[in-house]
Amino acid sequence: MAKFATAFALALIAQVAQAEKCYVLALSSGEESAAYQAGVIKGLAETLDMENRSYDAISGVQGGAVNAVLLSAYEKGDEVAAADRLKTFWDNATNSTLFQ
C-alpha cells in the first residue's frame, strides 16, 4: 500500500509540475456545511471562468467527502454539471430518506 501511495504522489507531483497553476479543493466536515458547500460550489462554477474553476485535486472530510466523491465523478472542465448534480443531491436529501 505504501508503494502505491508513493507512486500515486509522484505521478501527481509530475503532472502538477507541468502545469502553471494547481487548484486544490479541500472540503470540511459537517452535514449542514456540506449542503452549504454545494451552493457555494454552484455559485463559483457559474461565475468563475473555466481556468479558475477547474480543480486538479479534491479532498473532503465527513460531509465534505460526500461532496468530493460527487464532484470527482465529473471530468475536469465539467464543473457546472458537477455543481448542478451536487446541489440536486443536497436538495433531495432529507432525514426520512437518509435514515430508512
Report on this model:
- By secondary structure, the chain is mainly α.
- The protein has a domain of 67 residues.
- The longest helix is centred in the first third of the chain and has 17 residues.
- The radius of gyration is 15 Å and the shape is globular.
- 21% of the residues are buried.
- InterPro entries: Acyl_Trfase/lysoPLipase (IPR016035).
- Keywords: Signal.
- This is PNPLA domain-containing protein.
Structural classification: mainly alpha
Order of helices and strands: HEHHEHHH
Strand content: 5-15%
3D shape: globular
Number of helical segments with 4 or more residues: 6
Share of residues in helices = 55-70%
End-to-end separation in angstroms reads 36 Å
How would you write the strand order of the largest sheet?
Answer: 1-2
Mean of residue pLDDT values: 82
What is the rounded Rg? 15 Å
DSSP E strands, number: 2
Largest sheet: 2 strands, parallel
Please specify the SSE layout and strand pairing.
Layout (H helix, E strand, L loop, with lengths): L1 H17 L5 E4 L3 H17 L2 H4 L3 E4 L2 H10 L6 H14 L2 H4 L2
Helix pairs in contact: 2-4, 2-5, 4-5
